[in-house]
Amino acid sequence: MKPTKVLTYIVIAAVILIAVFSLMDNGEKPIESNYFEELKSYRHDKDSFMRNNEKSPFVEQAIEYKGLNYFDIDESYKVKASVEALENGKVYDLRTSDDRLKTFQAVAILHFDLLGSHQDLTLLQSADDGLYFLAFYDETSSITTYGAGRYLEISYKKGQNSVILDFNKAYNPYCAYTTGYTCPVPPTENNISIPINAGEKNYE
């Protein structure tokens, strides 16, 4: 290879490196992470559902929809939890927002560390439809978030030894928006001892 070509390649490589380090020094991030984009899309889709879908509590009851309120997206609130499966777990009769009782059975304890503290949540299964139910209180409850607790969707199958908990997707039950719905409260054990400044806030 001719010396002039080698010199050309060296110059091009040097220019690229200078550009990369310049971006790093300035703290610029030209492309947001896929996680942030995923969360933004998730919130956009939920907003569209609440505003337009016939199954939305706002559409069903013909009440004004003002938009949902969220904490800023923070990936540190997405954690892996180990699963302690339960055989013949405790049966709960949870009080609901309309003063009924709904029966659930504990199927697993989820153990995880979050922001330097260890936490446990009990995963329940509905006696009515067999669906899993994960609800919790935390130190923001009745302050910046719904006082009767928030819910968290979970992808879980029996036999799994770990699950992902993403508190950026913590959401309010329909009872946080209006009356006319049956919303179970979390079991008393599911009281996280730190503020979960992630997910949905109070509806205003």
Beta content: 15-25%
Instruction: Report the span from N to C terminus.
Output: 70 Å
**Main beta sheet: strand number and arrangement?**
6 strands, antiparallel
Low-confidence stretches: 1-32
**Which H/E pattern describes the elements?**
HHHEEEEEEEE
Output the structural class.
alpha+beta
Radius of gyration: 23 Å
Q: Name the overall outline.
A: globular
- Put simply, the count of helices is 3
Mean model confidence by pLDDT: 88
**How many extended strands?**
8
Helix content range: 10-25%
Question: What can you tell me about this protein's structure?
Answer:
This protein is of the alpha+beta class. Helix content is 23%, strand content 24%. The strands form two sheets. Strands 1, 2, 3, 4, 5 and 8 form a six-stranded antiparallel beta sheet that branches. It is globular and about 45 Å long. InterPro entries: DUF1684. This is DUF1684 domain-containing protein. Pfam families: DUF1684. The chain crosses the membrane at residues 6-24. It comes from Marivirga arenosa.
